[in-house]
């Protein structure tokens, strides 16, 4: 199996190094890049080879940084490094949150969970099939949410949800909700054991 | 090529073996030697003209003599539709279930996915069952009663009462698209399911699904294009006959 690669974007030298040394304790992982500021992040966006970018929350939620994050390729997923207990980070499509105050065991557990969840789909997912946003919508359809509920959750209009649904159906060639649900499970967009 | 009453029944099967399932529905058994379609139909007391139209529309998507099909009696049409229901539940669905079961049994790498497929098809089966049950318990009896009242010169008021609570328009509106899920299932297997180890089983399953889908399409075409318009005309005339009294 190929090594899972990480990039860390964090201002504090100590936290950056500390997190890197914790993550490297997990077998088959490597830290490919350490990013200190916005300039470095912009450079990294165009050529990032990491599977995961771990990024400081207060840094990531700045509007100009959000724009930079949007330019990362789909192969790089985000993990938020947080310094508060808030479990929601708006505006970023992230895989999980690691807290600065977490113990080493918790950090390892979280990282393993996040990467374990994605290792299967990583190579299998069909590129260009549906967009990240459509995948979000699809996930919620599969979980049984109505158009209205999905719209409220993702802060978009019901009309937009309907448009996304049409596009998903057209792209995948699947019309019914049960069919879409199976697609979501097969492609690990949702985890049935967790959702039960 | 159109099948006609003088063609040998054996040649009908040679031309297109999908006709086997239609023969089966009409209760016609194999071993008919060189007998013609007409003779075989006579032996099994099947209306040869009805048989020909059904078998021709079944094998040839472009052939659909709507007007001619509408000349057959409602009882003949609903009887055939009921036979196709029976064929789905007693033959087709169990065949597909067995294939899926074999796939679940024989799969080690993605058992979860196979179990999902099984559940999906099981839900579909129940949906199909509800669908056909509704037709047999509500729709077909209604159409038969309409035909009876239509043929009767002096129908009594009970038919009007019946028509107040139900009509063929209601059926047309509630007649849901039962093929959609099947379409999805096919696409999931063809496009998205990681290739199962036993490709042979998978191909067989797809073959059966395509088969059932085609059959269902043919079935709903007869319901929507033949039965519904025919009953609608009868309903109108019954109402007219009452208003002119």
Description:
- The complex is a heterodimer of chains A (196) and B (245).
- With 196 residues, chain A is of the alpha/beta class.
- Chain A folds into 2 domains: 4-124, Response regulator (Rossmann fold, 3-Layer(aba) Sandwich), CATH 3.40.50.2300; 132-195, Winged helix-like DNA-binding domain superfamily/Winged helix DNA-binding domain (Arc Repressor Mutant, subunit A, Orthogonal Bundle).
- Chain A has helices at 13-23, 38-47, 57-60, 63-70, 104-124, 132-142, 147-154, 158-172, 177-186, 192-195; strands spanning 4-9, 29-35, 52-56, 77-82, 94-99.
- Chain A has a 5-stranded parallel β-sheet with strand order 2-1-3-4-5.
- In chain A, helix 6 (132-142) crosses helix 8 (158-172), helix 6 (132-142) packs across helix 9 and helix 7 crosses helix 8 (158-172).
- The model of chain A is unreliable at 120-128 (pLDDT under 50).
- Chain B has helices at residues 9-15, 19-25, 37-43, 48-59, 66-69, 74-106, 111-151, 158-165, 168-174, 180-192, 199-243.
- With 245 residues, chain B is mainly α.
- The mean pLDDT of chain B is 89.
- The interface between A and B is medium-sized, with 15 and 17 residues.
In short:
The complex is a heterodimer of chains A (196) and B (245). Chain A has 196 residues and is an alpha/beta fold.
């Amino acid at each position: 199996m190929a090594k899972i690669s990480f990039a860390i974007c964090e201002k504090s030298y100590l936290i950056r190094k500390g997190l890197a040394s914790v993550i490297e304790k997990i077998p088959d992982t490597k830290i490919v890049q350490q990013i200190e500021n916005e300039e470095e992040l912009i450079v990294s966006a165009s050529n990032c080879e990491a599977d995961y970018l771990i990024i400081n929350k207060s840094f990531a939620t700045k509007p100009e940084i959000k724009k930079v994050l949007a330019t990362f390729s789909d192969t790089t997923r985000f993990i938020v490094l947080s310094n508060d207990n808030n479990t929601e980070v708006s505006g970023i499509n992230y895989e999980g949150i690691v807290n600065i105050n977490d113990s080493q065991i918790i950090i390892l557990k979280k990282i393993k969970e996040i990467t374990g969840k994605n290792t299967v789909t990583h190579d299998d997912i069909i590129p260009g099939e549906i967009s990240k946003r459509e995948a979000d919508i699809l996930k919620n359809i599969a979980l049984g949410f109505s158009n209205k509920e999905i719209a409220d959750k993702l802060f978009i209009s019901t009309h937009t949800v309907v448009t996304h649904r049409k596009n998903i159906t057209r792209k995948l060639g699947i019309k019914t909700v049960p069919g879409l649900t199976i697609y979501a499970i097969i492609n690990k967009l949702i985890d049935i054991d967790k959702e039960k | 090529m159109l099948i006609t009453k003088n063609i040998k029944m054996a040649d009908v099967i040679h031309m297109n073996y999908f006709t086997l399932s239609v023969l089966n529905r009409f209760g016609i058994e194999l071993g008919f030697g060189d007998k013609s379609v007409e003779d075989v139909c006579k032996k099994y007391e099947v209306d040869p003209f009805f048989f020909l139209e059904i078998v021709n529309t079944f094998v040839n998507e472009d052939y659909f003599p709507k007007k001619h099909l509408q000349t057959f009696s409602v009882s003949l049409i609903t009887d055939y539709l009921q036979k196709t229901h029976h064929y789905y539940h007693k033959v087709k669905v169990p065949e597909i279930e067995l294939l899926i079961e074999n796939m679940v049994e024989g799969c080690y790498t993605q058992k979860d996915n196979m179990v999902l497929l099984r559940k999906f098809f099981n839900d579909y089966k129940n949906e199909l069952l509800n669908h056909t049950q509704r037709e047999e318990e509500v729709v077909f009896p209604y159409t038969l009663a309409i035909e009876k009242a239509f043929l009767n010169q002096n129908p009594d008021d009970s038919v009007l009462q019946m028509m107040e609570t139900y009509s063929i328009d209601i059926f047309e509106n509630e007649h849901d698209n039962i093929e959609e899920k099947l379409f999805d299932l096919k696409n999931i297997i063809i496009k998205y399911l990681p290739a199962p180890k036993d490709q042979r089983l998978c191909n067989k399953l797809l073959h059966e699904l395509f088969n059932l889908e085609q059959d269902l399409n043919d079935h709903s075409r007869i319901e929507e294009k033949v039965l519904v318009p025919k009953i609608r005309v009868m309903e109108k005339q019954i109402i007219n006959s009452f208003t002119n009294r």
